[in-house]
Amino acid sequence: MIHLLGIRHHGPGSARSVLSALNALQPDLILLEGPLEAEAILPFANHPDMQAPVAVLVYGNVAEENEPRASFFPFAEFSPEWQAIQYGLRQQIPLRFIDLPQAYNLADNWLAPASPTPSEDVSPSESGEVRRDMIDPIGLLAQAAGYYDSERFWEHLVEQRPHVGEVFQAIHEAMSAIREQVIDDGSPRQQREACREAYMRQCLRQAEKDGYQQIVVVCGAWHTPALVELKTTKKTDTALLKTLNKIKTQAAWIPWTHSRLLTSSGYGAGIESPAWYQHLWTHYQQSPIDAEKISISWLAKFAQELRAQGLDASSAQLIDAARLIASLAALRGRELPDLDDLNEAIVSILHHGNALPSQLAQKMLVGEVLGSVPDDVPSLPIQQDFLKLCKSLRLKQEADSKALELDLRKDLDLARSQFLHRLNLLGITWGNYQGGGGRGSFKENWILQWQPELSLKLLETAVWGQSIQEATDNYIQHQLIHEQHIAKVAQLMQSVLLADLAQTMPALIRHIMNLSAQSSDISHLIDALEPLANTWRYSDVRKTDSQAVGDVVKSFVTRICIGLLPACNSLNDDAAEQRLTELKTIDRVLQRLEKTSLTQAWHQTVLKLTTMANLHGLIAGWCCRIAQNYELLSAEQAAERFALALSQANNPEQAAHWFAGFLTDQGLSLLHDEALWQLVDSWLVHLSEDHFVQLLPLLRRTIATFSHPERQQIAAKVGGQQQQQQRQQTLNNQRGQLVLPVLAQIFGVRL
Asked: How many other CB atoms are found less than 10 A from the CB of residue 680?
């Protein structure tokens, strides 16, 4: 005999009803809606160290496209299928998955289904028929019952009223009534559903053929009418399934999180509040179910969180909230409190009518939990290597974000850093690198947060090797085949150093040298200079040999210094700004390296640029100032060139560009060098009104490069000069008044 248990995925009430039905029916076979590929790994579900939420990951590869594909089938502790699996394994009852194998679903047998229309927009046509690709069966039942929300309807009818027995028959009859109105529109989604249900029927026929007498089927409520053979035959189902293509697939258990069960995450069978359902499931295992305990324990959790955030939550408020919840449930005719009842009481009493902070509400309703999968569950070699490294490095996969500071002088922290950088190279972004901590180069800051999809990323990397190091090496070698940008190769070299992949570095060096030999544009070399210099600079910290990288840097600096003179000749304004940015990069990088031979070559190049004809004023001014800073020019020589460049004989626009280049980011020099101050003041005072208006935007942009305190001090200095001039004028007038009587007597005039 076949018993159909139509459930809602991840419903605690459905889970309790399923367990009650299984205890009453005592089946000799349990069939579950799930991928056939996972049947072989089902026995590991009751492993002592297996902790829900977990998911079955089914993955495969499209050979023609070399494209990995995967599907996830999550289970929470309160999922009906999970409880049926646990029951079957405890009672040693055979378990089978009967859903269409993912080998077909991942093989592009159907076009991507259109997004379903929201339930409130679903309505029967004039003939009473409903399109299958638009239908929300629970939504239609909710509308008929006067509910605005299908979620609330199902919870009140099933989840909050765990029945025994007759509820599944009622669900079956309701789904049958809706399905009678469905028309066949040939949509991709309907084609896929037809194939799924045909395969389920084939599995049922096989179970009966195998001699099982008490067969229980646990599946989505919508499918139960289709599993009763009324309109289809074995021949029809076989013919339909024969038309499908398939690919080779494998299955594995992976950890999952509560947040990935949310409807908002894009999960088709998602729920609104995993934490609430987990809370209900805890109380549903008690007999009888105590509605008051459900309310009080939920309020206690909320109160603890409010107090942790420094908000009030007194005992008196909790008592009042519990009473309000009981009153609301009685007023609305509910046996158990609803999440809406609890939220209204919490907002009204514990939060004084104000909306709860979104972060607090999210934390309480989701209750983020990351499941765990035992290490001895069969897995790929790269998974085993990953788990082994996590254990040895004391890194735990957690759903919540966690800050991690590493000191690279310690062997453990250095190994952790290298491991996380290798994962990032593979696209497994468990750690978000925040950069170094403090002023030294011995610190690294990371933010760690494990996401379930990273398990799929880990499986995808299996094609590159059997260990994390091997996979990273091979993946980098593969990237080099297609990478033609010198700067990107330089950045890759920096990442390879951070990941301690010394055996990969020679191939990178050969590749970047080949690319640089083919390029005549020094901009490409300049873009690559900083990551190359960082690689060379931090090699000592990471205990790696990077002499070959140093040779590349020296080669690049030599070529840049040779190519700068022609590259800076006769530039327009836009090109000059871009070139100045590159010059600043070169200067910054070489200052950090502190290599005498390189800085000497750079200084000679700067000095040559200061005497170069047809040099844009922006670059000429900057080079003059840099030459003065490095004492390549004396203060008198720099002042002479400044005065010459800003003289009235020169074009005002060229003078303004020279001024901008010389003073960019040099507010302190202007404040403390009185000779420079007087030169600038004299130049500005003697500008004509038309020229001043024309040059004002450029002057303002130059001043904007100064820091705010520097601009304030400059303004104060100008104001102080004006006040001093006014005082001097007043003093001169007073002295003049004293002399006038004497002059009148001398000249014989009357005042």
From this structure: 17
